[in-house]
Structures are given as structure tokens and as C-alpha cells.
Design a protein that fits this description.
This protein has 13 helices and no strands. The protein is mainly alpha-helical.
Amino acid sequence: MSELAAHVGLASVLALWFALVWRARSALRHPHLRGLWLTVLAATTAITLFQPRIVGRLASAGIDVHSVSLARNLIGVLSAGLVLLFVIDSSRTPRLRGYVAVVMTAALVSLPVLDLLQVDQAGGGTASAQRPASASSAYWLILIGSHLAGDAVAVVVCWAYSLRTTERDLVWSLRLFAAGSVLALVFWSGYLFHLYDPAPRLLPYLSVIMSVHGFLRAASLLVPTASALARSADALRTIWRLWPLWRDLVTAVPHVALARPRRTRLLELLQPRHPLALQAHRQTIETYDALLTLQQYVRPEAYERAHRYARQAGVREDRLAAAALAGAVDEARRAVLAGVPPADPHPLPGVTHGSPETLLGIARMWPAMSGVLPGPDRTSPARPR
């Protein structure tokens, strides 16, 4: 179990430092993100100095284990204070924030003073690397009480705020932060028990709990990145699936497109003219505009004939409407390319509002329904005026 705890702990530390570096630029630019980033930074530093392997390497470099433990304890209390300052609304409770700052400062001063006053200091080595710097009960209670207070308030406040806001990224950040604080409460409660009953069997399990807490802290910081990746993946999916339909329609109705399609859809993804989200939006709008134009070339009964063909071909019931639209639109597209003059618009069912889901449904059926209806007569209008 100790080996597993060590591996999970190092993975947690790496995840935390990656999240901090990745989000540093945007977090430091925006004041409303800076508090969370600094809170996670302090917690990450303390968690890093809690790992026995890292403490062992610092000891090998000539740094006293006692100094490492004291630094970890001070940074941990600072982290607890920053958690409180982060979750307290500065605009509504400035006096409370002042009290928190005073108490945090008092705790930070008390720890080194108690450490200097205590006589029986903890021994060095990796065996005591995860214990507090001082054996004093007052030292322990200040250290652990600070963490319990900070994490308890964080659980209540973050969860309450997550229920009030409608911003999805903020909801997930707050809830992940609250979940991490719950695990921190479990850890510090168990750690206090471990200090008074120093049997080694409990510490590996506590280390795993602290490591999972670290993963949750990293995740709370990376929520905007995850959302951006999800939006990019959705845009990639839209561009890829819509591309054949979009290419064929804007080729027939070129005035609706800002630029000509590239030769392949892979090039469209590898060499986008715009950011992916804008590219997907542009292709959706241009496809819809092309559909509206092509309604002047739709023959009477084209939708019904395409619907019958799709049913006879065994198309699934939930895709019949999209297949019928694809067949009718393809016939209209070929009418444009054949030089058939336009006629009164013949509205197609389901494309009035240009729903992206409808367009993607047509795009899915486009290869199967292209060319299934008879080609237009070049000398005949699409529909009598």
C-alpha cells in the first residue's frame, strides 16, 4: 500500500503542477481567477513537500527534514487561509476577510514560535518526513484546525455558490473544489488521529486520500481548458460531418460562401481559415443559406419521392426525414448545375430555422441519397410560376 501511495502521490503532484503552469497566464490576467490559482499553488507546494521521495531527495541535497516539515506546515496554513479568502465574498464581507487575514497571520507566527520552544524535536529521515515539524500538541491543533476550518467553509460556500450560478464552467470548478475539500477534511481528521496513535498502517491510506484531493484541485483549475477542448472537439465533429454537404451546396450556390472549399475535408481541418468554432459556425450558416436558395429549384413531390425511396431502401425510421431532405436537396442542386431556371420557392419541411442537428442529419444521409432522384430537364423550370 505504501508503494501505491507513493506512485499516486507523485502522479497527483505532476497533475497539480501541470494545471498550474497551464493556467498561469490566463489566471494571473483575470482577478476573479487569480485567487483560485494562488490557492491551488499553495496547496500544491504543501502536497509536494508531503511526498516521502521528494523529502528524501531534499534531505540528500543537504536540506534538513525538520526544515522541510516546517516549511510544509507553514505553506499548508497559508493555503488554508487562502482558501478562506478565496471563498469569502470580498464585496459583501470585507471585515470578515480582515479577520481571516489576522487569524491566518497569527497562526503563521505561532507555528515557528512553538517549534522553537519545543524541546523534543522530531528526528530526521524519511520515517518522519510526513509528520509535523513539532511534537507539541498546540502546534498540531493550530496546524490541523486551520486546515479543517478552511476546508469546512470551502465545502459549504463552494457548493452553495454552485447551486446559484448558471455558468457551467464555474459550477464544475466550484463542485470539484468542494469535493477536494471534503477529502481534505477526511485527511486532516485521520491525520490528527494518526498523530496521537502513530501506527504506520493508517498513513498510506491518508496519503492516497490527499493525492486524490490533489487531482480534484487540479481538475477544478482545468475546467475551462476541458470546456475549450470539448468545444473544439464538437467544432471538429461538425466541420468533418458537414463538409461533403457544405462543399456540394456552396459549389452549386457559390454566392453564399465567403471562400471556396478546399480540395479535401482533411485540408479544411488542417488548414482552417478561422478558429475551429468560427469555422463550424460559418459552414453551418452557409449550408443553411444554400438550402434556402435551393428551395427555388425543388420540384413538386421531390420530398415525398425521396421519402418513399429511403423507406424502400431500408433507412431507419428516425433518419427517414433527413434522408428525404437530402434527396430533394440533391435534386435541386443538380438542377442549378444543369442551368434550370428558378421558380417559386418550395419550402422543405424541417429546415425553416436551420437547426444544426437537422443539417448534420442531412449530411449523414447525403452520400446515400445523392443521385437517387431522376436528373432535371435543362430546358424545363424547376416548378411552374
